[in-house]
Specification:
With 667 residues, the protein is an alpha+beta fold. The chain is built from 19 helices and 28 strands. α1 packs antiparallel against α8.
């Protein structure tokens, strides 16, 4: 046996040495980045274009080097609405013209508003974009005690007279009044389509309609060199270590600006080519010999196919991971060839199928969309994390295929009752199965799972807590799932610096802004889940008014205005059951604390768990029950604000405005 192993190693080294001598033109037919970054047709609602540089897409299988991080797109609302975040504001993309390198955008702030009350400066001073000839600026003077004097032609915004004590105006082609800041609450500039502006001046459209027409921006990043790259037969890409330098992926490698003319393979003499071909022939012969020896060696082995590991996959079956490695054939058989009738649902990373193993177990098999480097990373991450965890409220991992398998497959226990999102505002919502006692228990069990993750050594930050990742069993008990984005957190570290990832509407705004992931990032996401549980509303809904597209923002505003009854799902008994009303109010207060924009002001998940347990088990006797027996009334609402002084409306409002209508766009 020892001599056989030694022979295998010697043959393998010889083959590797020979193959390393083969010219590039013989050993490599296509540079992987060139293949991965080819333009592909893409659709989101009514928007159709070829996805290519500089765009990258949330949930896409395209690697990050195919697009620029400042051009990250997110498709939401059941794949009907395309968003892009620029300069800290979110814009709805209504048209993409790849040939002209132009986007038509509408600020999300204006979507769904007949008369926007607060106008943010949405002009651009970015090296990535420039205006087109179809754009003009609209100067808006809001709530003016005196009429601005420097503007030549002012038009009154009639619809704002109902919400502001003083008149508001707009003017075209003006740069603003130098002393308008003393006369008006705010003076801002808004880019607008020239045709829409002309209709507005002729009173053929309303102020809100004109803003919702949007404006056009031409992206200038990659200007010049990207066109040259494409003309030379390459595809444009992004180099994180040198982000502003041209990067062109060609058939045989990466180059600056464009692909080399003619044969890009380094020149080789005829003699060298003959030698190369000869070496390749010898290498092929040795490779065939090696394959034969390996075949004989394996045939004599005693391992079963479902437990056989590729050498590079030894870690999957190690004592560290403790997971079973299935063969692809076994899982293909278990799912009837991944038949459509076995599909349980689609997620951001793959399709899940119902399967039945040879030992009789019914399982859920997640089939990752693409076997590329990013999927392998997520695959190994989820295996590595779930294989070391054991908790009653975490989904159990039964095993996986080898990372070298023809497809990446993960095998979990089957959780048959859908997700919390399905029951709150999805296909199961009409059943009204989630009563208030079940919802508060879901909150407790989810918090318990998170507290466990944050307490293990090293701690784990889930990074994608959302109602779609909270599964329910037949008795409506929680199983938290999907650890593809989770991170092991260094012990005693205050944060981990990493690019924001997660789902729009759930991502911690501080993490989004500062690129610093902490355990409080999970607390923020859980705060959104708490609001979903009391409201039955989705985390992001672009059909809501501009200030309420993000559920977190809607909830904070309702709580601050003492309008909790407008947030709560009326089916829960908030108006008819005083005990339920009090518990929901306490959960709303806790959610309010979790949703603070400053992570240091959020409670740790362990404290959140204990408070939720108190609300569930005793209802009335929790810390802070001095709120009184009639919580929800006008006087108590004022008391609510005082008792949450560190998290008071006055201390939150200004900071909150900068991100409330900017859903995060991370993969």
């Amino acid at each position: 046996m020892y001599s056989q192993t030694l022979l295998l190693h010697l043959l393998l080294l010889l083959v590797l040495y020979v193959l390393s001598s083969i010219p590039l033109s013989l050993s490599q037919t296509n540079y992987y980045r060139y293949s991965n970054c080819q333009p592909v047709p893409y659709s989101c609602g009514k928007i159709h274009f070829n996805l290519q540089y500089p765009f990258e897409l949330d949930g896409s299988d395209r690697p990050g080097y195919c697009g620029h991080p400042d051009f990250h797109l997110t498709c939401i609302n059941n794949n009907s609405t395309l968003l892009i975040s620029i300069n800290g504001l979110s814009y709805q993309v209504t048209h993409v013209d790849v040939a002209r390198r132009a986007l038509t955008l509408v600020a999300v702030l204006f979507v769904g508003q007949e008369c926007p009350q607060l106008i943010y400066d949405t002009t651009f001073a970015s090296s990535d974009f420039q205006y087109t000839d179809d754009d003009v600026n609209l100067t808006v003077y809001f709530n003016c005690t005196e009429k601005p004097t420097s503007a030549s032609m002012l038009y009154t915004i009639e619809c704002l007279s109902e919400v502001a004590p003083h008149p508001s105006y707009y003017a075209l082609y003006e740069g603003g009044d130098s002393d308008a800041g003393d006369k008006c609450s705010s003076v801002t500039e808004v880019p607008i389509n020239r045709t829409a502006a002309e209709k507005l001046m002729k009173s053929n459209s309303s102020f809100g309609d004109a803003l919702r027409e949007g404006f056009e921006l031409r992206w200038i990043i990659g200007s010049g060199w990207c066109g040259a790259c494409i003309e030379s037969g390459g595809v444009c890409g992004y180099n994180a270590s040198s982000p502003r330098n041209p990067t062109c992926f060609c058939r045989y490698g990466s180059f600056g600006g464009s692909c080399p003319a003619g044969d890009p393979v380094p020149s080789t003499s005829k003699k060298g080519r003959v030698i190369g071909i000869s070496v390749a022939a010898v290498g092929s012969s040795l490779l065939c010999m090696l394959c034969f020896v390996i075949y004989i060696h394996k045939k004599r082995g005693k391992r079963s196919p479902s437990r056989e590991l590729h050498p590079s996959d030894a870690e999957l079956g190690s004592n560290h991971y403790q997971t079973h490695v299935f063969s692809y054939d076994e899982l293909e058989e278990a799912t009837d060839g991944f038949h459509a009738s076995k599909e349980l649902g689609d997620g951001g990373f793959g399709t899940v199928y119902r399967g039945k193993l040879r030992d009789g177990r019914t399982v859920a098999v997640k089939r990752l969309y693409e076997n590329n480097y990013k999927r392998v990373e997520q695959f190994m991450n989820e295996v590595g994390i779930l294989s070391r965890l054991r908790h009653q409220n975490l989904v159990s991992l039964y095993g996986c295929t080898s990372r070298r398998s023809r497809e990446l497959l993960l095998v979990y226990e089957l959780i048959p009752n859908g997700t919390v999102a399905d029951h709150l505002h999805g296909p199961f919502s009409l059943k009204r199965a989630l009563t208030w006692p079940i919802r508060i228990r879901i909150a407790v069990e989810t918090a318990d799972a998170l507290a466990y993750l944050h307490a293990v050594d090293p701690p784990i930050v889930h990074r994608d807590i959302k109602t779609n990742n909270i599964l329910l069993d037949a008795s409506f008990h929680v199983k938290v799932a999907d650890f593809g984005l989770s991170r092991l957190f260094p012990t005693n570290a205050t944060h981990v610096s990493t690019a924001p990832q997660g789902t729009p509407g759930y991502v911690d705004p501080e993490y989004h802004k500062c690129y610093q992931l902490t355990d409080k990032s999970d607390v923020y996401s859980f705060g959104v889940v708490l609001v979903e549980l009391i409201s039955s509303k989705p985390a992001v809904d672009i059909t809501r008014s501009r200030d309420e597209i993000n559920l977190a923002n809607l909830a904070v505003r309702r709580i601050q205005k003492c309008e909790l009854e407008q947030l709560v799902d009326p089916e829960l008994g908030y108006d008819s059951d005083s005990a339920v009303k009090k518990m929901i109010t306490m959960v709303a207060e806790l959610a309010f604390r979790c949703l603070q924009p400053d992570g240091d002001m959020r409670p740790p998940i362990r404290e959140v768990l204990e408070l939720l347990k108190g609300i569930e088990e005793e209802g009335y006797k929790v810390e802070g029950d001095e709120l009184g027996d009639d919580i929800g009334g006008e006087g108590d609402c004022a008391g609510f604000s005082k008792k949450t002084a560190p998290f008071s409306p006055d201390s939150v409002t200004h900071q909150w405005e900068s991100w409330t209508t900017t859903p995060n766009t991370s993969k």
